[in-house]
């Protein structure tokens, strides 16, 4: 702040000396020539009217007007900002404690240049005069604008990449969860899959064993299914599989499971269910399928039931239920 004030007073003194040689009668230096030939753009402006009273050579070269014409113009003819914009810029300079203003000046060829105007008021013969130094900052402004555009582009690019990255992560996660969920189901019938069975068995293995029945497994195999496919076609065969699962689901509880174990073979995993209750469920399912009206034939199946006491023996229990199911097929007429 102190340096700014010193520079301010130094410039005023130099300007006063250059305009009023009477203040430097003993000086051997012609300050008026220094002022006129100085490389910086210098204007002397009437503070009341805005009229340009004096312009050095640098100003004439910069603005491109003949000296005679420039000295008949006012600063308002050069400044492209309106009064409201000028007022806002002055208020901004005051807030930011700047000793200069940023304006847009129009040259003789119509080009608009960004300038910093450092104006210093001096009272001369009771009349206020502005001694202004004009600095062309157009290239600097363009560079700053370019850097700002690059910064914004980089910011939006980063946000775009960041958003895309998390979008892809979310898609991959959801896809993974979706396929994991789909893998748990048989796509044709909607029953649970063999993969789900493996997960269920692993889950049940973590439970403690007891002398009570933990689970009850029922192995179901559709009778004469090959004949159905051969005589009525695979489309009808697929519909039969779907129908069996639909009816099974309608007779079990929400904590029980229907699993497609093989082509036309299904498992029922029943929790907290005894053999008598499981036989009741199975007989209702058999009756429903046998009397169905959707097909030209009754749907029948054989089954085997096995209680599970030891979670480590689930696969073995399924095998035993499977053997019981095949025993129940013995003596049946398995062709249409």
From TrEMBL:
A GO term, aspect molecular function: diguanylate cyclase activity
Domain of life: Bacteria
One BP annotation, GO: cell adhesion involved in single-species biofilm formation
Regions crossing the membrane: 156-174
Keyword Membrane attributed: yes
Species the sequence originates in: Maledivibacter halophilus
Record-given protein name: PAS domain S-box-containing protein/diguanylate cyclase (GGDEF) domain-containing protein
Annotated ranges, domain GGDEF: 213-336
CDD domains, per database record: GGDEF, PAS
PROSITE patterns, A to Z: GGDEF
Keyword annotations from UniProtKB, A to Z: Membrane, Signal, Transmembrane, Transmembrane helix
GO CC entries: plasma membrane
Signal peptide: 1-24
InterPro entries: Diguanylate_Cyclase, GGDEF_dom, Nucleotide_cyclase, PAS, PAS-like_dom_sf, Rev_trsase/Diguanyl_cyclase
PANTHER family assigned: DIGUANYLATE CYCLASE DGCN, REGULATORY COMPONENTS OF SENSORY TRANSDUCTION SYSTEM
């Amino acid at each position: 702040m102190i340096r700014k004030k010193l520079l301010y007073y130094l410039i005023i003194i130099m300007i006063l000396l250059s305009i009023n040689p009477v203040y430097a009668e003993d000086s051997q230096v012609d300050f008026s020539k220094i002022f006129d030939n100085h490389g910086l753009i210098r204007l002397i402006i009437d503070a009341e009217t805005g009229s340009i009273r004096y312009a050095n050579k640098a100003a004439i070269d910069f603005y491109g007007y003949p000296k005679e014409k420039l000295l008949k113009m006012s600063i308002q003819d050069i400044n492209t900002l309106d009064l409201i914009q000028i007022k806002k810029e002055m208020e901004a300079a005051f807030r930011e404690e700047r000793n200069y203003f940023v304006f847009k000046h129009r040259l003789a060829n119509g080009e608009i240049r960004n300038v910093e105007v450092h104006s210093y008021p001096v009272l001369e013969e009771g009349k206020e005069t502005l001694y202004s130094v004009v600095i062309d900052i157009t290239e600097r402004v363009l560079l700053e604008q370019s850097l700002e555009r690059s910064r914004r582009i980089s910011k939006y690019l980063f946000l775009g990449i960041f958003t895309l990255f998390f979008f892809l992560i979310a898609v991959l996660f959801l896809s993974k969860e979706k396929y994991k969920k789909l893998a748990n189901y048989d796509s044709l019938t909607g029953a649970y899959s063999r993969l789900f069975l493996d997960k269920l068995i692993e889950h049940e293995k973590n439970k403690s064993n007891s002398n009570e029945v933990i689970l009850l497994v029922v192995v179901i195999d559709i009778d004469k299914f090959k004949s159905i496919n051969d005589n009525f076609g695979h489309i009808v065969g697929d519909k039969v599989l779907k129908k069996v699962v639909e009816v099974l689901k309608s007779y079990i509880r929400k904590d029980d499971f229907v699993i497609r174990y093989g082509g036309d073979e299904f498992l029922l995993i029943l929790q907290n269910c005894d053999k008598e209750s499981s036989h009741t469920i199975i007989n209702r399912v058999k009756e429903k399928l046998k009397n169905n009206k959707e097909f030209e034939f009754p749907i029948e199946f054989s089954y085997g039931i096995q209680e599970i006491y030891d979670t480590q023996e689930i696969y073995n229990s399924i095998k035993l239920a499977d053997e019981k199911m095949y025993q129940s097929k013995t003596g049946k007429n398995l062709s249409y």
